[in-house]
Amino acid sequence: MQRNSISIYVQGIGSVGRNFLSILADEGKLISERTGMDIVLGGATDRTGSVIFSKPVAPADLLKAKLSGNILSLGKEVTSREMTENEGGILVDMSSASRDGSRELQMYLSAMKNGMDIVTANKSPLANHWKQIMDNASAGRRMVLYEATVAGGVPLFSLLGGSCGPSTVNEFRGIVSLTANFVLKQMREGKTFMDAVAEAQKRGIAETNFRDDTDGLDGARKTVILANALFGKNMTLKDIKTSGVSESTDAKGMDRYRLIAEITRSGNEVHAFSGLRNLDDGDYLLSLGEMSLGYEVNTSRNGRLRIHSVSDGPGETAAAVMNDVMLLAKEKFQGKC
Ligand SMILES: NC(=O)c1ccc[n+]([C@@H]2O[C@H](COP(=O)([O-])OP(=O)(O)OC[C@H]3O[C@@H](n4cnc5c(N)ncnc54)[C@H](OP(=O)(O)O)[C@@H]3O)[C@@H](O)[C@H]2O)c1
Q1: Ligand 1: which atom is nearest the Cα of residue 47?
Q2: SS3 308
């Protein structure tokens, strides 16, 4: 019997991308059973270029080609624009964030115009161009899913959107970025800033460009996405101040400081904050471990919820990306998109 399949085009095969491909390699059968669709690799992009596969490539073979530094040998080399011309496919963005999100914006607009849906772990396009991307998606009846952009593998947007339907979120407070808090903790324990960053990289939680995380830019991007997705705002990065951790941070005495995202609604006003905050004893966020991400929300109908992971990293983020791909696959199987 002919099975239904859906093609995905992966952008970025770094820490998250490689974990994503491993999940597809290991769990392909379960994913097909749960979605009704076979997820098939149609193409891939890294910094060496973009390639479209003439016949489906197994995830393990793409991983192998990536390790040997030659993904382009797997098919026909194409331009980044041609990667967005695959109607019915899903563009899965696990690439490094560009500073202003405009590279990704052009890619998403072109993909949606050509009948593709988007799954992204990349915050920059959404933090810089939320309105344009979402307006385009609703005009073209396309979907943009972004669970992995905030708090790694901790269920957030799908959970609040899927299980708290009648509620309004009135307050969100969370530790949604690992690196800056991890580095600050290591500095409190006596490490220099660069040694703490090296330790974070060794554990796979600091990206190649770690400054976005430590400077607080990454946290600010997440805060913008949260304010827009949960509080109905149309913020951009310009609306949020950033603060973080650097060589000049004096970590002594900062035992109760954490880099947090905090958004509150009061009447028609929404206040968004991203940065270091001295937390009170007994604050739930203080109870989270150094590898843990989590948040508490105050909702109008579902009460106060506290959700956290015990440990998070690129593997959990990749699982969140895969969950979005599976949600889209199910929608396509049921003919809804
Ligand atoms: N790591 C996490 O836990 C985590 C959590 C949440 C969200 N994210 C987001 O997920 C994305 C990937 O993170 P990561 O940790 O996997 O980063 P990474 O290890 O640095 O990998 C980035 C990947 O993007 C590719 N790339 C860079 N510039 C590109 C471009 N202009 N066009 C296409 N591909 C490009 C790189 O290509 P090469 O392989 O050729 O260098 C690499 O494969 C980032 O946007 C990050 O903010 C990561």
Answers
A1: 40
A2: strand
What is the dihedral sign for C-alpha 281, 164, 108, 238? negative
Q: What pLDDT, on a 0 to 100 scale, did the predictor assign at position 206?
A: 87
**Ligand 1 pocket, 184 CB below 6 A?**
no
Q: How many CA within 13 A on the CB side of residue 24?
A: 26
- Ligand 1 centre to CA of 147 (Å) is 16
**Best mutation site among 10, 207, 323 for ligand 1, i.e. most ligand atoms within 8 A of its Cβ?**
207
Q: What per-residue confidence (pLDDT) applies to 295?
A: 98
What pLDDT score was predicted for residue 333? Answer: 85
The percent of residues above 70 in pLDDT, for the chain, comes to 99
Q: Establish whether residue 148 lines the binding site of ligand 1, counting it when its CB lies within 6 angstroms of any ligand atom.
A: yes
Mean pLDDT for the chain? Answer: 95
In the numeric block, which tokens belong to residue 229? 């997705």
CATH architecture of 5-153+316-333: 3-Layer(aba) Sandwich (3.40)
Q: How far apart are CA 172 and CA 297, in angstroms?
A: 5
Distance of CA 175 from the midpoint of ligand 1 (Å): 21
**Cα angle, residue 158 at apex, residues 103 and 28 outer, rounded to 5°:** 80
For ligand 1, atom 18, name the residue with the nearest CA.
Answer: 14
Q: What is the largest CA-CA distance in the chain?
A: 66
Residue ranges of the chain that CATH labels 3.30.360.10: 158-312
Q: How far is the CA of 78 from the centre of ligand 1 (A)?
A: 20
Listed in order, the ranges of the chain carrying CATH 3.40.50.720 are 5-153+316-333
User: Is any atom of ligand 1 closer than 6 Å to the C-beta of 13?
Assistant: yes
Fold annotation for 158-312: Dihydrodipicolinate Reductase; domain 2 (3.30.360)
Report the side by side order of strands in the sheet with 257-266.
Answer: 269-278, 257-266, 169-175, 294-299, 303-308
> What integer pLDDT is reported at residue 242 of this predicted model?
87
Q: DSSP characters for 254-293?
A: -TTEEEEEEEEEETTEEEEEEEEEEPPTT-GGGGS-TT--
pLDDT over 80 (residue 1): no
